[in-house]
Specification:
alpha/beta, 9 helices, binds zinc ion, 3-stranded parallel β-sheet
């Protein structure tokens, strides 16, 4: 272990001690009296959960009365269903950015708990967990792949194995600046399936941190097409467009 790695691991441990998931609110750092809670009363009163009317396929918030979103109506989806307990906005958005870019690995555990609760509520049955891969350069910069850290926590909660069947071997351009079609092309050929036999006939749970346009999970679930079913999950889904 080099010195840099040593300090990073020590920092993770210190943060785990300061924020042992059940003492501070994961969204605002306020103290919480109840040990089983991860979010304080005040934050719970804000519209943080993705529990309104949603697309049955991609879990995106949609206008009341609609069942499937426009994009899922027009596009074939290779995945069965998406599960995202939170709306990607405000404090939740800030916490996810912290988890992704600020080495706040300790946030994965409580967030995974909310994902798992929703998977159980929706009765999603899966045999294995496949994290959306990150390029090794990105992992080196961040210290970890956030999707893998969430997947690890889901493996603990569900007792199902992790299968790193997908790898990212080409660094793609930042998705944020691109349109829908460009995102799709940008990602294709950057992710590969290592061995189709790993997932053949299985029910796979694909794990990411956030789902915005579904481009990433669409590319991943297309690669996993030898699986029986592919479900996707993430912490949060983009909010309802006005
Ligand atoms: Zn709070
Ligand atoms: Zn949809």
């Amino acid at each position: 272990m080099n010195l840099k790695e040593f300090f990073r691991k020590t920092k993770d441990k210190v943060l785990d001690t300061i924020f042992p998931n059940d003492i501070k609110c994961i969204l605002c750092d306020r103290d919480i009296p109840d040990n089983n809670q991860h979010i304080c009363e005040k934050c719970l009163k804000e519209n943080i959960f993705n529990n309104g009317n949603r697309c049955v396929k991609c879990d995106m918030p949609i206008k009341e009365g609609n069942i499937v979103c426009d994009r899922c109506t027009q596009t074939h989806r290779s995945f069965e269903k998406c599960i995202c307990p939170f709306i990607y906005d405000g404090k939740v958005r800030n916490a996810i950015i912290k988890l992704k870019d600020d080495k706040a690995k300790y946030l994965a555990k409580p967030f995974a708990k909310y994902i798992y609760e929703k998977l159980e509520k929706e009765d999603i049955q899966f045999d294995m967990i496949v994290p959306v891969p990150s390029h090794k350069k990105t992992i080196k910069r961040r210290g970890y792949n956030p999707a893998k850290v969430i997947a690890d926590e889901l493996a603990v909660l569900s007792g199902k194995p992790i299968c790193e069947a997908l790898i990212k071997n080409v660094l793609s351009k930042n998705q944020k600046a691109l349109g829908f079609q460009e995102r799709q092309t940008n990602l294709q050929n950057t992710i590969v399936l290592t061995d189709k036999n790993l997932i053949k006939g299985k029910n796979v749970l694909l794990v990411d941190d956030i789902i915005t346009t579904c481009a990433t999970i669409e590319v991943c679930s297309t690669l996993l097409n030898k699986a029986n079913k592919v479900y996707a999950c993430a912490i949060a889904r983009t909010k309802l467009k006005d």
